Amino acid sequence: MTRPRSGRGFARLVRLPPFAWLSVFFLVPFAITLKISLSEPATAIPPYLPVLDWRAGLEGWSSFLEALDFDNYATLYADPLYRDAALGSLTYAAVASLILVALGIPLAYALARSPARWQPLLVALVVVPFWTSFLIRIYAWIAILKPEGLLNLVLLRLGLIAEPLTILNTDAAILIGLVYAYLPFMVLPLYAVMNRLDPTLREAAADLGASPTRVFWSVTLPLSLPGILAGAGLCFIPMVGEFVIPDLLGGSETLMLGRVLWTEFFSNRDWPLASAVAVLILGIVIGPVVLFRDSLRAGKTEDGRP
What we know:
This protein has 14 helices and two strands. Helix 1 (about 5-35) packs antiparallel against helix 14 (about 270-300), helix 8 (about 170-195) packs antiparallel against helix 11 and helix 13 (about 255-265) packs antiparallel against helix 14. The protein has a two-stranded antiparallel sheet. The two termini are about 20 Å apart. By secondary structure, it is mainly alpha-helical. The protein folds into two domains: about 10-70, no CATH class; about 75-285, Orthogonal Bundle (MetI-like fold). One of its GO terms (cellular component) is plasma membrane. Pfam families: BPD_transp_1.
């Protein structure tokens, strides 16, 4: 049956606002960032060259395009500082994502298998941290992890340690902060997938003699893979460019792209190089974004929807 023209027109109209939003708040800023990354730093306002002279017409456009180059990207490739920062960001994000998967699967499974009347309350408890400022929550971890903080105080009182542990300004502190901050982003998508699984599949496996553990590993976990990928993608992508957590909980030697970008932009006033770092971060997270999109499509297919 052919859809009426009015229906097709309405469908296009409905899709227009999201495309307009993405164009204004993503494509245009990205184009500006990309252009600045191809420029050179300058002691001027704005602090980069070239700047397009609209009044010069075609000659101005020609001079503008000829002045653009890839020197900043060559610097990123040649300087080991930026390679180490990229590797550090990927390492922290990957390790934290693995920890989040290990913690998120049992938490989401417990939520999905809990009585229906308790699930809204339990989900609300997962969301409660979002009610407090992200910055305040990270500062709270400073008070917990510092040598005279709450964690060391409790361990000393219990007799588990003889002297305060050095946790703050270490890799462990960064991982603790990342896992704490992004755990809801792992649990909620995974819970949504597990909660929609057909319970008759588990019952059929149990009827065939499978133990609860075997049912989980053979039925529940494979069917929850789209949720695992979605949650891992939602966590990994922003963690690659994280700045606040490594800056507050990590030491001065911590190398992550977010801190490098901030340093280049605000301390060194090198906007072109900072923009190149931003484009590099975007290039790094494209892969997880594609995986996240594919996992959503796979989840829809398993639900019987096109």
